[in-house]
Every structure is written in C-alpha cells, then in structure tokens.
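Milestone M4 deliverable, item 7.
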Amino acid sequence: PNLAYVLLVSGFVLAVLALFTPGTGLLEIGALFALVVAGFGVATLPTNWWALLILLVGVVAFLLAVRRSRQWIYLALSLLALIVGSIFLFRSEAGSPGVHPALAVLLSASALAIMWIVARRSLEAARMRPSIDLSTLIGKLGEAHTDVHGDGSVYVGGEEWTAHSEDFIPKGAAVRVIGREGLVLQVEAAPLKPE
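Output delivered:
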C-alpha cells in the first residue's frame, strides 16, 4: 500500500507540474505512468473509497487556495484532507490503515509545498507584464529567416519575429527594423549583413 500511495502522490504532483509548466512532454509521460501503476494498486488493494473522496476534497481546497483570498485557510484544509485521506486510503486485512501515518504526513506536506510553489510562481509569471520594450528593436539589424514579401520571419535581437515588408527580401538577407504593429515588425532590406 505504501508504494501504491507514493506512486499516486507522485503522479498527481507530476500532473500538476505538467499543467503549470508545459514543455517536453516528459512530465506528462511520467504522470501518466505513475497514475496508471497507482491506479492498478487502487484497483487491486483494499481501498476506502471515502478516503479517496477526502483526497479529492483536498485537491479542490488546494485549487481554491491558489485562486482565492484567504489562501492559508484553504491550504490548511487541503493539507488536513490530504493527510487524513492518505492515511486511510488503503486498509490492511485487519482493517487498520494501510499507509504509514508518518509517510502520509511527510509526502502530503512535501507534495503540497511543491505544488504550491509551482502554482504560485506560474500564476505570478502569467500576471506579469512583458518586460521587453519593443520600441528598442526599431533600427536594429537582423536576418530574414524566410523570404519576406508581405509577411515572413526574421531574427532580430536574439528572437525570431513575424515581420512585414512591402518589398521582397530573400531568405538570409540582412534586414533593418523600421517600425512595428503589435508584435509584427516592419522591416526593410539592409545593405550590411547583421553581426
């Protein structure tokens, strides 16, 4: 039961990390693997389904803690629900809790702390205004990554940008930024190759 519990918690933590930090797909694959193996354990071991519901209440309380004011109340409720649900999730043949209480407390607190930090940092990053001042790109030299006639792609200031030009600019040619419309750079052919 302890191994199934560790896999279940690991799967949920990896799933939350995957939600807040999309990328390579490795977190998603790890979460899927851990949850499938843990699901097999839940299906084959004697399980207290009411404890699984308490775990779900803990997850909902965590989501409320991330999104609402009075975060600490929801976070404390989440931790309490996760610990109680974890201890009683599996039962032994004698009917006693199958997950060691110390393991449940340690893993629940650790998982909650990791998810809290990741969720808060992700939400803070999503609320931040962009730190780049696009007007500083005007006058910079770059290189056309595609043919630019109408629309195309250029590399300027260490980034790839969508660009627009009235004149044809071949791929690989030097370009100069002469303006912008939103996130689309207005470019012209530049006589010099960019550095």
